[in-house]
Fold these 2 entries.
Entry 1:
Amino acid sequence: VYVTGLTCLRCGTRYDWLGEAYLCPSCGPGPDPTDAGVLDVDYDYDAARGELLGAGGLASDRRDLFRFLPLLPVEQPGPVPPAGNTPLYEASRLGRRLGVSALHLKDEARNPTRALKDRATAIAVTRAKALGHEDIFCASAGNAAISLAGFSAFAGLRAHAFVPRDASAVRLNWLQRFGADVRRSEGDYDEAYEEAEGKRSDGWYSRNCAFNPFQVEGKKTAALEIGEQLGWKSPDLVVCAVGDACTLAAIGKGFRELTRLGLADRLPRLIGVQAAAVHPVADMFDSRHGREPLPVGGVTKAVSINVGKPRNARRLLTELEESGGLMLSVTDDQIAAAQTELARDAGVVAEFTSAAALAGLQALAERESVAGKSVALIITGGRPDDA
Ligand SMILES: *Cc1c(COP(=O)(O)O)cnc(C)c1O
Ligand SMILES: [Zn+2]
C-alpha cells in the first residue's frame, strides 16, 4: 500500500493512515452538513508509479478496478465481483450532431449492479472484510444501496440500506432481492443520511461516500480507465451528473493523479450537471464566482442527484477550480429529451439521472462553443427507471 496518510479538506490537518477512518477528528461533522471534515487519501506517488507501470498494475492482465491497486487504499482485492473495466466508446452519430470532435461514452451501466457506485462499493467491501466487519450500511436513493446489497450478497456481509421515504419501487425491489435490510426514512435522502450515520456507533462499517474517505478512491478509477482507454490523452471535457458531488470530484482526483504520474498531458475541464429543481452545488459555484443563485423549486425525477445537502461539495468545488470547470443545471424536460437522444442516436441504456450529463453538455453548448472538443460523457448508471 502506498498510502502515506489522510488530509482534512477543511482544516488541512494531516493524519497517519489508520485501519478505520471517517471524518477529520478535529472538524468532525461540524455545523454545516455540506462542509464536514472530509478526509482525502494521500499516496507516495513516486513509489507507486513503478508498481503501477509494472506487473502490479498496467502490465498485469487484471482488468477490473484493482488493475490500479498501487493507487488504491487496500492491500489486496477482497471478495468482490469485478467492478470497473467498463467500455469507453465513441458515439459518432450523436457526437456529429452536437458538433464535438469526439463524444466518448463511459458506460458505467456495465458494472455488476449497473452503476458507477460499484467502484466505491468494491473498496468498501474489501476494507470491511479485511477489518472483520459483518455489517455494512449506506444511505442512498437507490443505486449505492443496491450496489452495496449486491456486493454484500456476493461477499457474505449484512447490508443495511437507509433509503428516503419516496425510494422508487424498482429500486426497493432490487434491495429486497439482494437480501438487504431496508430502513425506510420518514424523510428525504438528506434525513436518511443522518439516520444512517447514527449507526456507525453499532460497529457497522459505513459506505457513505463523503464520510468514508476510501470510497472516492474507488470512484476515481473511472478517470484512470478513461486515461488509459484514450492512450493517455485527456479529453477536453468530462461531463457528469452531480448529487453529493463525490463522483465527479473523484474523477477530478483521478485525472490529477494521472498528470502527477506523467500519464496525462493535461487536466480535462470538469462539467458538473444538476437538476433545475435541486442544484445546491451549482449555487455554491455561482456564489464563488459572484453570480446570483438561480431559482429553485419543484421536484426532479433525477432521483440519484436529488440531494439538498451535497456532502462532498467542497471537494468538487476545489476540483472544478483546478480544472477550469463549471456547474450547470438542466430541467427535467431537458433530461428527458437527452435520455431519448441517447437511446435514438446512440443506442444507450442510460437511466434518467445519467442522461443529465448529455443535457448538461447541450446546455454548455448554448453558453460557449464546444466545436472541435473531445468529450467524455459519464453514463453513471443504467437501471430502468420507474414508469
Ligand atoms: C450517485 C449517482 C450520481 C451522482 O453521484 P454523486 O457522487 O452523488 O455526485 C449520478 N448518477 C447516478 C446514476 C448515480 O447513481
Ligand atoms: Zn479538519
Note: Residues 78 and 126 are 4 Å apart (CA to CA).
Entry 2:
Amino acid sequence: MRFLLTALAFLFSVSTHAQQKDEEVIKKIYNEALTNGKTYDWLHYMSKRIGARLSGSPEAAAAVEFTRQVMDTLGLDRVYLQEVMVPHWIRGNKEFATILNSKRIGSRQVNVCALGNSVGTGPAGVSGGIIEVKSFEELAKLGKKAVSGKIVFFNRPLDNTHFDTFEAYSGAVNQRGSGASEAAKYGAVGVVVRSMTTALDDAPHTGSLRYAADLPQLPAVAISTKDAELLSSLLKNEADLQFHFQTNCKMLPDVLSYNVVGEIKGSQFPEEVINVGGHLDSWDLGEGAHDDGAGCVQSIEVLRIMKTLGIKPKRTIRAVMFMNEENGLRGGTKYAQLAAKEGNKHIAAIESDRGGFTPREFSVDTTPEKLAKMAAWKPLFKPYGISDILAGGSGADIGPLKPLGTALMEYVPDPQRYFDVHHTAEDTFEKVNKRELELGAGAMTALVYLLSEYGL
Ligand SMILES: [Zn+2]
C-alpha cells in the first residue's frame, strides 16, 4: 500500500512537473509572438508589395519566392519547393451587368464579378429573361420548359441563424460551385449567383465553380447581396424582366507552380511529421490578406518562434504553403501524393484558413482516443482565449492527407467578420489586426509544440 502511494505520488509529481514545464514554454511562445512577432510585417509584404496571388499569376510566383526566401533566413533544416501544375484562369477586363427596362426603375447597372473557372460571355454578353430559384430542387421542378433560353438567378441566402458563419456558408455554397452545371441541364444560357456572404453589401464575392464534364459550360457571375435583393424584389412584379451581363474571363493552359515547404527535423522521432500550413494563392480581387496570407505567415511564424526560443522539437515540424486551394486544390493533392511516397508518418496536420481573427478553438478530425488526448491540453490554452479543442472539420488543403491516417486540425478564430471580406476587393491588409494575427500564431505554435512533445 505504501509502495502504491509512493508510486502514485511520484507519477503525480512527474505529471505536475511536465504541466508546469509546458505552461512555461507556452508562455514563452506567446511572449515571443506578441513582442517580436514577424507575421504582421510578412503579411504586409504579401498583401501590399505582392498583392492578389491567383494560381498561375506572376504574383503567385512572387509569393512562392518570397516565402521561400523568408524561410531561408530562419536557419531551418530544409527549405524546398514541390512542383505542381496549376490551372491558370484570368478575369480579363472588368465585368458588367444591367437590369434592362424595369417598369419600376428603368435600366440599372448592378455589381457583379465572374465566378472563378467560369467561361466568358464573349463581347456580345448574355441577355435574356431571368428566373429566380432558391434551390436545385426548385430548378428541377421548373424544368426545361420554364428555364430554357433564360438566365438562372440562384438567390438562396446564407442562413444567418447559424452562430458559425462557416455553417451558413456551407449551406449555400453549392449554388456557386454547381449552379452553372445544374442550370445547363435545363437549357439555361447563363447564371447569376447571390454572393456568399453573411453581410448585405455592394461587393460581389467571387469563388470557384466546377463544370460537370458532360454539360454545356455556362458563363456565371456573382451578384452583390444588395443587388440580389433588388433583383428579387423586381421579379416579384415583373416576371418578364430582362437581364444582361458581359464577362471577359477565360481558362488558359496549366502553369508550373509550387508548394513551399520549410522543415525542422525532429530530435527524437524525425520520421513522425507534424504539418502546419495555409494556402499561398488568393482570389484576384483583393490582397488575399485574411484568405489566406494570414494562415501562411502564421505557419512560418511557428518555425521562427521554435528556432528563436531554441525549442528542439522531438518530431519533425513542417510549414507548408499550399498552392491553388481556391480554384483547384492541386497543391494539397500533390502534397498528399508525395507524403504517401516518402515513408514518413504524417501524424498531424493543422491548417489556418479562416482568417487572421481572434483565437477561439481548435477543431480536430481524428479518432475519439486521439481527441481525448488533445482535449486534456485545454487548460494550457485557457489563459490565451482558446476555449475548446473539439471534434470538427479541418482545412481543404490537408484533407487529402486523411487516407494516410493523419489527424487533421484547423485553427478556428472568431468567425463573425470573415465573410464580410471573403473573396472580395475588401480582403486587404488593413482588415487584419496585428494582435489577433499574432495570438493565432502563438496558439498554433503552442499546439505544434505539444504535438511534437507527446505525439498522437
Ligand atoms: Zn482560403
Note: The chain is about 40% helix and 25% strand.
